[in-house]
């Protein structure tokens, strides 16, 4: 799918908002723009991407033309996806202090909840809130629970949560309000890696229960 003027809107003096593309193409767009190093910042949203340019180097109309003329974006390919990531999750007990309460809220057995998550076709919508925190969509609509009324001041790194119809992974320790139902065994953050966070926007995710792995 080609990027056109219909997909672009200027925001303020140094931002371009890109909308109207399917999510896979939108994520590919964000990755290609970041890799080009021609833009100050590229931020992925759930339904859009926002591109920041240097207003001292480009006027807004010049920035739009530059974006549209990029050879990299002449045809945005949805097949240029990141490889699927398999997350091994240890559900319940000390790894998921809210697991039992979530099962009760959804009126599911523990195995029914695990199976529903593991069978879902999941994808990372965006990464944000705290560094490396991945918002993962694709859960069945029936698996919708609210966030905690009283957020935790400390959530351990690797925690796996569920809220508002999404999964969430905490790459780093920090505060959080998602019910915690498990812990990701994979290393979500590796400061020595060129790509320090395991998950990226647009990436497909498959969850496997550690007990079944």
Question: Overview of this structure, please?
Answer:
The chain has helices at residues 23-36, 60-69, 99-106, 110-119, and strands at 8-11, 15-19, 41-44, 48-52, 85-91, 122-127, 134-137, 152-155, 159-163, 166-169, 174-176, 180-184, 204-209. With 213 residues, it is an alpha+beta fold. The strands form three sheets. A seven-stranded mixed barrel has the order 5-12-9-10-7-6-13. Strand 1 (8-11) and strand 2 form a beta hairpin.
Offer a few descriptive terms.
four-stranded antiparallel beta sheet; 4 helices; seven-stranded mixed β-barrel; single chain; alpha+beta; 29% strand; 20% helix; 213 residues
Spans of 5+ residues with little confidence (pLDDT < 50)? none
Distance between the termini: 38 Å
Instruction: Determine the structural class based on helices, strands and strand pairing.
Output: alpha+beta
User: Strand fraction band?
Assistant: 25-35%
| Strand count | 13
What is the overall number of helices?
4
Radius of gyration: 19 Å
Largest sheet: 7 strands, mixed, barrel
Query: What string, H for helix and E for strand, traces the elements in order?
Result: EEHEEHEHHEEEEEEEE
Mean pLDDT: 90
Helix content: 10-25%
Q: Note the overall shape.
A: elongated
Strand order of the largest sheet: 5-12-9-10-7-6-13
Oligomer: single chain
């Amino acid at each position: 799918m080609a990027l056109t003027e219909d997909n672009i809107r200027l925001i303020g003096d140094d931002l371009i908002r890109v909308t109207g593309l399917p999510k896979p193409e939108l994520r590919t767009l964000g990755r290609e723009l970041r890799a080009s190093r021609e833009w100050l910042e590229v931020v992925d949203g759930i339904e859009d991407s926002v591109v920041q340019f240097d207003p001292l180097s480009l006027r807004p109309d010049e920035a739009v033309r530059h974006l549209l003329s990029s050879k990299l974006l002449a045809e945005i390919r949805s097949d240029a996806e990141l490889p699927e990531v398999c997350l091994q999750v240890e559900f319940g007990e000390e790894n998921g202090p809210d697991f039992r309460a979530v099962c009760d809220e959804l009126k599911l057995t523990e195995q029914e909840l695990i199976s529903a998550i593991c069978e879902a076709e999941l994808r990372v919508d965006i990464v944000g809130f705290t560094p490396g925190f991945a918002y993962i969509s694709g859960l069945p609509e029936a698996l919708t629970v609210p966030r905690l009324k009283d957020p935790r001041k400390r959530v351990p790194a690797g925690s796996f949560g569920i809220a508002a119809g999404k999964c969430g992974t905490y790459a780093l320790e920090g505060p959080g309000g998602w019910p915690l139902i498990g812990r990701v065994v994979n290393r979500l953050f590796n400061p020595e890696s060129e790509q320090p966070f395991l998950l990226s926007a647009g990436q497909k995710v498959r969850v496997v229960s550690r007990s079944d792995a």
